[in-house]
């Protein structure tokens, strides 16, 4: 998209009658200022990101040790750890994966492969783009009313299951959209070839389309999971606890999660707790980094295969 | 699509089980269709939940008091529910965020789309995505524990919790959203428009500001509106850094309480279902939902209504 800047070195009116003043020197000076400002905008954004990361690392890294990873929360900051939060977050990830992957990918396949352009697809499409814009705390309110209160006999109230279901709904639009994009990228000739051989729609999707679209779908779902693991507001709203000194034994047990624990430590006035929160942030960010690396690795690996 | 094979002639060779295939097809279609309906059910769930609890809330607190009270004191014995207190705080933090995110996001988009060569782009875009992927609680930590102390060193009267640093970092957190959506819009402006502009003697900056940006305006405006919607619904940054103090007004130096911060405050306490405080978070949630919904629809409409087509 870079179009060469044409070098115009003067006006076009040699007669001298015209009032047109090209003032090229001045205009090119403004051009340079504009370009520097545009670059500066990106640099500022990335600089703040860098300062944030350095800030967190320098505060939290000295606190990060085995004791921190294997201890329960405590009133004494130097004895506190994030074992229950870490385990809670990992359980949550599994629950979200169990519910949101099949539903999200299935819905994406249905919308892309099984319905032709029509009112049904239109309604669901508008609906999904609206859902993607709903603030996460609203999902928290839905989770509170539906999963914590209404379905209490099943979920056991403010439990891992209720939290996982809430987060599943939250990331569903992301998974559906990325599944559809991945399916759309598979050329139609493949489908036609499958139909020509007498395969049903589902056989074509299962044997031809899905393997092709798999890397794209996988990337989208892992990105959705990384959104779920950093989500705080929705979990606070459904009532995830901030002080849990045991590990959940079943998915109907109360729980805490990494961002909740971090929030709790940040919101305390004592400095040592702030250091704990910085260390917690490092753990969270490392987890996010790992997930994204896995996504990129798997995508590259599968892309070579097909 | 699959009925054309001449299966009437049994040849003694391989016979596909068409009956089974058809049944599987039907079952799969049914299940996946049900999955697709989950998203519709979610929408209905959100709307019905909010309407139901909000209705209950307005049985106890009249709507006109919700809209006209000038204080927000739900935990006092003489409780007042003036939603404008929370809305003013939300508008304040959102306003500051937009002042940061619009110019920086748009300029960043201009750089990515118009100036950066492909190699630089390949590095800058993922870097912005990293910024977009930082969890909001981390931004909250940064706003409260780093930005606020820094700002206090030269802004006298800035309190430990304030709308200013919350708004600033909120703005930084939505820069990637503005930048990537605006860049898509700028990038899709055809080159012929730029070349035409150069042909009549405009410089690159003049081409960008008077041709490319106007041509992409619908997409840019849509990205701004979505950014506002995101800022209004953002929770953790404002809860941590802007405080929990419901005051009416637009002073960025003092603690305020946004709509989202109120929901968090009530959720952290153990509020029994059915109590007025429990219902009040749904009433606030309803207000928040309506505001973001209107903005989302507006941005959708702007794109549809004002998109310039170049083909």
List keywords for this structure.
heterodimer; A: mainly alpha; 12 helices; B: 311 residues; mainly alpha; 2 domains; 72% helix
What profile does the largest beta sheet of chain A have?
none
Tell me the overall shape of chain A: globular
Report the C-alpha radius of gyration of chain A, rounded.
26 Å
Kindly estimate the percentage of residues of chain B that lie in beta strands according to DSSP: under 5%
Instruction: Give me the CATH superfamily of the largest domain in chain A.
Output: MetI-like
Q: Tell me which CATH architecture of the largest domain in chain B applies here.
A: Orthogonal Bundle
End-to-end C-alpha gap of chain A: 31 Å
Radius of gyration of chain B, in Å, reads 26 Å
CATH class of the largest domain in chain A: Mainly Alpha
What's the total helix number of chain B? 12
**What is the mean predicted local confidence, pLDDT of chain B?**
88
List the domain count of chain B as a whole number.
2
Largest chain-chain contact?
Answer: A-B, 95 and 102 residues
CATH topology of the largest domain in chain A: MetI-like fold
Q: Helix amount of chain B, in percent?
A: over 70%
What does this structure look like?
The complex is a heterodimer of chains A (306) and B (311). Chain A has 306 residues and is mainly alpha-helical. Chain A folds into 2 domains: 29-63; 69-305, MetI-like (MetI-like fold), CATH 1.10.3720. In chain A, 72% of the residues lie in helices and 0% in strands. Chain A contains 12 helices and no strands. In chain A, helix 3 crosses helix 11 (258-266) and helix 11 runs antiparallel to helix 12. Chain A is globular, with a radius of gyration of 26 Å. Chain B contains 12 helices and no strands. In chain B, helix 1 (18-60) crosses helix 12, helix 5 packs across helix 6 (163-187) and helix 11 packs antiparallel against helix 12 (276-306). The two termini of chain B are 34 Å apart. Chains A and B meet through helix 1, helix 3, helix 4, helix 5 and helix 7 of A and helix 1, helix 3, helix 4, helix 5 and helix 6 of B.
């Amino acid at each position: 998209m870079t179009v060469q800047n044409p070098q115009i070195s003067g006006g076009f009116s040699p007669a001298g009658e015209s009032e047109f003043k090209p003032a090229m020197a001045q205009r090119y000076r403004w051009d340079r200022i504009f370009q520097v400002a545009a670059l500066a905008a990106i640099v500022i954004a990335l600089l703040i990101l860098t300062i944030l990361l350095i800030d967190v690392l320098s505060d939290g890294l000295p606190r990060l040790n085995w004791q921190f990873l294997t201890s329960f929360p405590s009133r004494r900051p130097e004895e506190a750890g994030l074992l229950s939060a870490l385990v809670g977050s990992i359980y949550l990830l599994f629950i979200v994966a169990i519910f949101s992957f099949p539903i999200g990918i299935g819905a994406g396949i249905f919308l892309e492969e099984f319905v032709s352009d029509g009112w049904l697809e239109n309604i669901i499409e508008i609906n999904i783009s609206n859902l993607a814009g709903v603030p996460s705390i609203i999902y928290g309110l839905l989770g509170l009313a539906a999963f914590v209160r209404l379905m209490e006999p099943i979920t056991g109230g403010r439990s891992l299951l209720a939290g996982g279901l809430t987060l599943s709904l939250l990331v569903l639009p992301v998974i559906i959209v990325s599944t559809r994009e991945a399916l759309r990228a598979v050329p139609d000739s493949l489908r036609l070839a499958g139909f020509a051989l007498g395969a049903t729609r589902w056989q074509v999707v299962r044997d031809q389309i899905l393997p092709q679209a798999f890397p794209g779908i996988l990337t989208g779902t892992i990105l959705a999971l990384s959104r779920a693991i950093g989500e705080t507001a929705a979990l606070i709203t459904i009532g995830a606890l901030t002080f849990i000194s045991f590990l959940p034994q079943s998915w109907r047990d109360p729980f805490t999660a990494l961002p909740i624990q971090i929030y709790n430590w940040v919101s305390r006035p004592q400095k040592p707790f702030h250091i704990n929160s910085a260390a917690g942030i490092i753990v969270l960010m490392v987890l996010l980094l790992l997930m994204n690396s896995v996504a990129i690795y798997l995508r590259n690996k599968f892309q070579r295969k097909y | 699509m699959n009925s054309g094979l001449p299966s009437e002639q049994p040849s003694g060779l391989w016979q596909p089980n068409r009956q089974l295939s058809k049944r599987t097809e039907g079952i799969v279609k049914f299940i996946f269709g049900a999955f697709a309906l989950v998203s519709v059910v979610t929408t209905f769930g959100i709307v019905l939940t909010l309407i139901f609890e909000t209705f209950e809330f307005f049985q106890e607190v009249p709507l006109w008091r919700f809209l006209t009270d000038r204080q927000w004191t739900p935990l006092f014995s003489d409780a007042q529910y003036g939603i404008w207190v929370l809305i003013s705080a939300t508008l304040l933090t959102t306003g500051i965020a937009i002042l940061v995110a619009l110019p920086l996001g748009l300029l960043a988009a201009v750089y990515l789309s118009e100036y950066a060569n492909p190699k630089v782009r390949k590095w800058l875009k993922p870097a912005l995505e990293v910024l977009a992927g930082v969890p909001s609680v981390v931004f909250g930590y940064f706003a409260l524990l780093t930005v606020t102390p820094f700002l206090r060193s030269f802004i006298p009267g800035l309190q430990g919790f304030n709308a200013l640093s919350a708004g600033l970092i909120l703005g930084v957190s939505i820069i990637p959203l503005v930048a990537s959506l605006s860049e898509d819009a700028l990038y899709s402006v055809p080159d012929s428009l730029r070349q035409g502009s150069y042909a009549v003697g405009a410089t690159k900056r003049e081409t960008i500001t008077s041709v490319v940006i106007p041509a992409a305006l619908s997409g840019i405006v849509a990205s701004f509106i979505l950014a506002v919607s995101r800022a209004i619904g953002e929770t953790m940054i404002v809860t941590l850094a802007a405080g929990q103090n419901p005051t009416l007004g637009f002073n960025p130096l003092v603690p305020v309480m946004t709509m989202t911060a109120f929901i968090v405050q009530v959720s952290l306490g153990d509020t029994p279902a059915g109590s007025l405080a429990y219902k009040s978070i749904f009433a606030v949630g309803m207000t928040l939902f309506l505001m973001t919904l209107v903005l989302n629809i507006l941005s959708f409409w702007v794109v549809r209504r004002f998109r310039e087509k170049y083909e």
